[in-house]
Structure formats: structure tokens, C-alpha cells
Recover the amino acids of this structure.
């Protein structure tokens, strides 16, 4: 049964990300490069931490999502959100500074805890951007991520901080984004 949950969660990573990538090319969404860069690093850390701490097949959804996270980051360099603020840069630097303790400790559990803290910090520029311009994001990606992380949790071979913390945090952040996007008021056209 865990294999079914893991494969379904990995498929959800594909199903949720492909339309998002199409929307990037069509100019419908504008990913924040800072956030997606950090998410690429964090997903890698979490994946290896999960593998090291016995997630087994439960790490498959993280691997699938990691491939798309990297691709979206690369696409965001050209097609992403261009109105980067000073506070966005501060959150990027804070997120990157969190990598130092991970490198020093080399402990999978501590690495995942630090990675999740970094992930949450990196999420703030995208949350700010979405609050101001909800049309720059797609609820499909975040909604499918909620379901994906529920299934990812169910697919873990071993339950501990390293294997579950990331999905729990992502359930909270993706639910927040989904609610924000579904309840957002339409933006007024600017006369620029």
C-alpha cells in the first residue's frame, strides 16, 4: 500500500507541475526565482535526509518534486517575477545562511530540520508576491501539493522527524497558498 501512495504522490508532483510549467511559458504565472532556487536546494537536502533515515519508497515523491523544482527555478530566471525587493533578498540570504549549520552537522535529522526552516523562510517572498499579485500563481500546483504531501506521509517506510517534517510543513504552506489563491480578489488593471 505504501508503494501505491508513493507512486500516486510522485504522479501528483508531475500532474501539479506540468500545467504550472506550461503557465510559465504562457506568461500566466511568474515564479519567484529566489524561492525556487532555495526550494531546489532544500528538496535535495530533504531527499537525501529521508533516504538516510529510512523513508524508503516514501522518498520517491520528494525526488519527483525535486526534478520539477529545479526546472521551475531555471525557467524563473528568464520568465519569473521581476519585482524583487530588498526584503526578498534578505530572506534569500537568511535561507542561504541556514545551509552553513547543515554542512557543519552532517546529521540527516538536523539537516532536514534546518532545511525545513530554510524552506519556510524562502517561502516568504512567494507568499508576499502572491498576496500582492495573486494572478502570478496557480492554485492547481499548491492544491495538488497538499494531496501529494498527505500521500507522501502515508508512504513513508519509517516515521521520524527527518522523514515527515518537510511534508508536514509543506501541508501548512501549500494549504495557505491554496486558500490565498482561491479567496484572492481580482487585481485591478493598472494604467501603466
Amino acid at each position: 500500500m505504501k508503494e501505491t501512495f508513493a507512486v500516486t504522490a510522485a504522479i501528483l508532483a508531475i500532474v501539479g507541475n506540468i500545467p504550472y510549467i506550461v503557465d510559465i511559458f504562457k506568461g500566466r504565472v511568474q515564479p519567484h526565482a529566489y524561492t525556487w532556487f532555495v526550494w531546489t536546494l532544500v528538496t535535495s537536502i530533504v531527499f537525501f535526509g529521508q533516504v538516510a533515515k529510512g523513508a524508503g519508497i516514501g522518498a520517491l515523491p520528494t525526488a519527483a518534486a525535486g526534478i520539477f523544482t529545479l526546472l521551475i527555478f531555471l525557467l524563473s530566471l528568464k520568465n519569473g517575477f521581476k519585482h524583487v525587493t530588498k526584503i526578498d533578498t534578505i530572506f534569500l540570504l537568511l535561507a542561504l545562511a541556514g545551509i552553513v549549520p547543515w554542512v557543519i552537522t552532517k546529521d540527516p535529522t538536523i539537516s532536514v530540520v534546518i532545511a525545513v526552516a530554510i524552506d519556510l523562510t524562502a517561502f516568504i517572498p512567494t507568499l508576499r508576491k502572491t498576496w500582492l499579485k495573486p494572478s502570478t500563481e496557480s492554485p492547481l500546483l499548491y492544491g495538488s501539493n497538499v494531496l501529494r504531501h498527505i500521500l507522501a506521509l502515508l508512504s513513508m517506510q519509517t516515521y521520524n522527524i527527518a522523514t515527515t517534517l518537510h511534508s508536514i510543513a509543506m501541508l501548512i504552506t501549500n494549504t495557505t497558498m491554496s486558500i490565498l489563491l482561491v479567496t484572492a480578489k481580482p487585481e485591478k488593471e493598472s494604467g501603466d
User: Anything to note?
Assistant: Residues 34 and 92 are 6 Å apart (CA to CA).
